[in-house]
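User: Fold this; tokens only.

Assistant: Input:
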Amino acid sequence: MDAFLEGLDPDPHAQFDAWYADAAAGGVANPEEVALATATPDGLPSVRMVLLKGHGPDGFAFYTNRESRKGLELAVNPRAALAFHWHLPQERQVRVEGPVETIGVERSAAYFASRHRGSRLAAWASPQSRQVDGRAELDRRLAAATERFAGTDIPLPPFWGGYLVVPHTIELWQAREHRFHDRVRYERSGKGWTRFRLGP
């Protein structure tokens, strides 16, 4: 009997929820931090850390400037991979791969409204991923946004919104001694999932 495999929930989303809760309860400072990999149409990859802002059967959500490098890459190659690494004490990783869908204006606006006012101003001010002349330019742009929205609510920028990574595969990784780890891969099969063990 494969105790590790059999001990996992048949639904990888439910299993992710359990591991995420373990990370949060176990002292991981920011369990929502996740590496996001995107690529150009010809396969040139790029990766950066983002924050998970929702998870469920529909996918894994994050938000960003749609004119950033990742936004532009997703516009022409809507596929992505995520990698969570919850180090001590869990020693676990979760990898997610699949196509990416855009989150609509209503949901994006609801999340944007929940952000700190300073973060909303920064979203308006930042020409994300594009070259700037220096910190002074950024400070000028932030001052202009602050003046523009003084005393008023800050709306969702037209160039800003959310994305969902809709998993076709989810892999769970649990560290073990001598780097002889446990790895289980879930693959979407119709409306359900199949799972199997991978070598470490």
